[in-house]
Amino acid sequence: MKKFEEKEQLIVVSTTFMILSARYYATGEFNPGEKGTRIAFSWAKIIGMYGFWFGSFYAQYNVYSYLISSIAKFLLYPFSS
User: Fold this and answer.
1) The pLDDT of residue 56 is above 80
2) End-to-end CA gap in the chain
3) 3-class secondary structure, 1
4) Transmembrane region positions (predicted)?
5) In this predicted structure, what is the pLDDT of residue 35?
6) Which conformational region is residue 31 in: left (phi greater than 0), alpha (psi within -120 to 50 degrees), or beta?
7) Cα–Cα distance between 63 and 81 in angstroms, integer?
8) Distance CA 38, CA 81 (A)
9) Alpha helix segments (H runs only) across 1-81
10) Which range has the worst mean pLDDT, 16-20, 42-46, 75-79?
11) Where are the domains of the chain?
């Protein structure tokens, strides 16, 4: 019974989120009459953030690939001829 209550609670939360999202995109506010502050980013900042994350991913991929291959080569060295 508890499992069904948890699932029902999850459905209620996700439905509430969808309603708030739909209202926000339609009117620009989560709750009717609620004042808020619009946060806007320039395209340069958005593109810069994506560039940073892709560059960071690329650098980490290369570093960890090198480390893993170096460790594997070191461990397998005694078995090479």
Assistant:
1) yes
2) 64
3) coil
4) 9-26, 38-56
5) 75
6) beta
7) 28
8) 66
9) 2-27, 43-76
10) 16-20
11) 1-38, 40-81
Residue 24: CB partners within 8 Å, gap ≥ 6?
A: 30
Q: What is the DSSP letter of 32?
A: T
Give which of 22, 21, 20, 24 is closest to 36, Cα–Cα.
24
Four-residue CA torsion sign, 10, 11, 17, 21: positive
Amino acid at 44: A
Is the separation of the CB atoms in 49 and 39 below 8 Å? no
Residue 2 tokens, joined: 């508890």
Distance CA 24, CA 27 (A): 5
Q: What is the largest CA-CA distance in the chain?
A: 77
pLDDT tens digits, residue range 11-41?
Answer: 766 777 677 677 776 777 777 777 777 778 8
Q: Are 30 and 23 in contact (CB under 8 A)?
A: yes
